[in-house]
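Provenance and format

Records in this collection were gathered into a single text stream. Each protein contributes a sequence line and a token line. The two records reproduced below are adjacent in the stream.
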Amino acid sequence: SFMDPIVPVDPESGDLAREQSDYLASELDALGDALVAADGIDPSSGRPWREIVDEGSFIDHHILAVVVKNPDAFRLSGYFHKDREQLIHAGPIWDLDRTAGSIDSRARDPYRWDATNETTDTTPIFTYGWYAPMFDKTAFRALYWARWQTLLAGPLSPAAVGARMAEMRAELSEAGPRNNARWGAADWNEELDAMDAWLAARLGWVDACIDLHDDPRVCAGPHTEP
């Protein structure tokens, strides 16, 4: 199996008819078989893997987890959804409590792809689960890096991220001091400053990585000009 056990949420397992659960299992089996097939086609159903999943949603889901360096992404928790007679979509994104330079050592360094530390409890983002065979495919990698470039020029640009951080700071301006008074936590402005700086470093590193390398997966530390 490519993934850890998949648990139905809506509807829950007890509310699924046997035919529905069998159908979902067959779709996931077809996806796995198609991804490892040399031609990318499920031998049982004759469908290419791109006719089983929404490729764009899997790319965006991956990017959103990687941009904040989520140690739990792809291996411990994640959502997928599927409407009737539609493709399997990845998302929505969630489980972000140990990300973006947090106390989890795996999320501190903004200059590496994988979420790693001194232990073996790491997240190899390009080789885990369904993403391993996806990233083996040249066309998928091209779409993935093109999507990164589009986002870095738009919603993930320094200006866009800075504006969003400013909005968040304004939203917290009333509740932040009360939180500090109640719990004795670090100053909330300092926490936002740290996150802002981490994201700027992270996004700058990704941008440079894509510019400097034909295969950005090779990036493993701070960049130096070639």
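Adjacent record:
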Amino acid sequence: VPARQGHNDRRRGGVPNGHQGRAAAPIRENCSAFSPNHLAIVGSRRHWAVVDRAPLLHFTRRRSAQRAITVLRHYRMSKQCTIGYPKAVFRYYLTNSAAPRGYRLRGEHCASFSPVLLRLVRTRRGHWMLAEGRRYLFRFRYNRRDAIKALNVIQKYTFNHSCYVGHGRHVMRYLLQR
């Protein structure tokens, strides 16, 4: 039974998750495979890239790039998927076409959430967000379609932890199932 929309949800543009009476359409995913065992760090000074055959991630600190490789290998991530074109607004990683899972790494920065409680919310400024209660977790600016697709992906893989490596603009965000 879907959660009821509260007064505050309607005022701020809340949209219940799920579509009653319709089967969910298959999600077209934009994913690129990589080998976690062949990852390397290239760069110097304030620009470091994690590469397989091509650049995968960018950081301003070598330590963040090394930590990203540790995370990718620990969870055996082998696909990087994006939502949004031409610029990705949402990224997630898969392990053999499934949600990454495993024991928590020491020092990992993660926040838990419930995929079934996520809902699409439109802010007063017209931005689309995925929220759990009053907590905004993911933002999509003005692109509602990308926000809906991200919600469907999160629920498909039952992701329930949002994590990150890095600082500032150059951050690797990843989702886990625990």
